[in-house]
# Entry
Amino acid sequence: MNEHRLSDPEKIVIRKEGMQIFVLSRYSAGRNVAMRFIEGNENCYFLSEDAPLEAIYSGTLFAQCWDNLGPAFTGKHGTIGANHGSPFVFRVRMLRHWLFESDLGRVLTDDAGERFVLVSVDSRSEFTLHSDLPDGDAPFCSKITGSLHLDGRTFLPESVRKGQLEPAPGGQLSPHRRYNRVKLLADGIRELADGETAECSFAELQWDVDLILPDALLNHLKTHPGKYVSPVDPCLQPAVHSREIVTFRPRCARTADCEFTFLQDFHESLRFGLLQFYNEVKFRHHERFVPGVKTITADGMEISLAEGYRFPEKFTGDHYYTKADCLDPNRLPCRYIDFYGDDRERELGVVLGYSVTQGLTARGNEAQRGNIVMHLPTSTKNYPSAFERFGAEAGEAFRIYAYQQFFRPDPAGVSCYRHQETDGFYVYADFFSAHANYEVELPAQLAGRSIEVMECSPGIAIRENLRCVPGNGILSLQAAGKGGIVLRIR
# Structure
């Protein structure tokens, strides 16, 4: 087997294997990260700097995440998209049901008179129903009451399990995301074939995706009964079309540039964040840091994310942060950072961020973002929000530009990471105490380029007031106390 090592810390090694993508990139001096990525779900391992990508599973697992692609939180349809199918699905089990494929699309009723459409016959003992389209503004039915009835026959379920609508065996994880086209391009130019590995400056994963509501499936089954139809079948009309470019970048970063267009009227609430993060690998220390939010109280707990909040072993708070919870509603939070480690230091930083220059989250667009900016649940999952509104008309479009990055927190008490975005190279630095001279090492190719201060807290500055990156690539920052700075270099 050929082995592929990273020769340059400002590059990545990438490999495509079916729906899996493997990435090797530099994390810190002497240490790399190898990642297995599937639709926003990932397993990440620390490897020594000289280890090849092929040694991924011999490394130390530090992040195991099965739900990092943000779904849409809607009013009537619940949570859909990403890894979520419709929540109004029921798997019914009984000894023998005597239903066949010819019955697909037929409507059963329960003892309460609620209607359910037969969407699949899974075995002689199991079948799947979806709540029928409700009348008017009524909600979908969320439970089956008692027995089921069809043409004078009564079905006595042994068990009813509510769950997502899964596609046929071997199908995708995301039941309502239909992939029309998928490409992986090294350096944005050369498409990688299945099984091919390349070292490159970046790699673009291009997705052309349709979001399909269960309405389309139910209508099709009822008008074309007797044949199984996948929830992402090409015959189903989509509700939202998206063009998504996920770019894997050096230093364990990736950006996501996504344009969404409504293809039909959408008359219900909708909230969307694109990215989210939850780590199943447990660390002794888990802390969240979100600059720009006020201290709040939830379930008797005082939570100050702007200062860096360490989660207790049993966290019971649950809070939706709104604009009223922000220090400045005209400058909403743009970076949401988790720190993990032991009782001595922060070992791992994970940031989810939104662009302050592009798309919905660009400064000046705060009114378009809606009221909710973040959800802090009892699970401690990171749920930032970029888009919220009630309803949309066919033809309306919006764009979100976001990023995710693993980075090494500085033991000196600084959170600093940097990466390329489409409109420049960005440096994000947050100080938790005063620093007279904090040095940031930049890629050599940035020497001589202009520096623009995008955001800056009082008391934070570039030493010597430099306007261009010096020849040695070392940028020095100073901080009189707590605060942050965002720089763009281009």
Residues 428 and 486 are 5 Å apart (CA to CA). Helices lie at 214-223. The radius of gyration is 25 Å. Residues 12-69+171-272 form one domain.
